[in-house]
Model the fold of this input.
Amino acid sequence: MEIMYSDLTVGVLALQGDYEKHLHRLISLKANTCEVRVKEDLDGLDGLIIPGGESTTMNLLIDRFGLRDKLVEFCRKKGVWGTCAGMILLAREVDGARIRPLEIIDIRVRRNAYGRQLHSFHTYIKAALNGAPAALQASFIRAPMVLHYGPEVKVIAKYEETPVLLFQRNCLVSSFHTELDDDLTLTQYFLNNFVSLFK
Done:
């Protein structure tokens, strides 16, 4: 039986980046959605996705639109998932970049560590989801690399021995994109284990 999520309302930060693909995936799972551009858009949401894109631009626009304080407050309480640039913004520390991260998850990352756009690649990642193995389609596009993670952070998947999918309490982050493919596994995992749990 197919699980639907009509009782959940999930926002996608829509300042810049590939937010539309995340919205389409949420809609396909019958979740209610909201494009988040101003702080009032966070009201009433059960969860939030911070998509891939240009992290420096997103960082600038977060402040330009007066989102930062309310965004930090939201991300400390509700289920949040950061993919690629979203991982960078949610990190505690970012190496070699003029970015003021939100400091939600205890990781240190480096931007573009897997190479520039030219070096993008697609692969499968083996992940442990809900205690069972899963093969996830993963697209690495100017992807960040996790250089360090704190003791409360759990690693769900690695690529060549480097963590690429991690979580801490209500916050899930991935170095890679999954929204470019048809596999909804990770989106459902987020809705089940983060949005529903911290609703």
Observations:
- The chain has a mean pLDDT of 93.
- The CA atoms of residues 80 and 171 lie 5 Å apart.
- The first helix runs from residue 19 to 28.
- DSSP finds five helices and twelve strands in the chain.
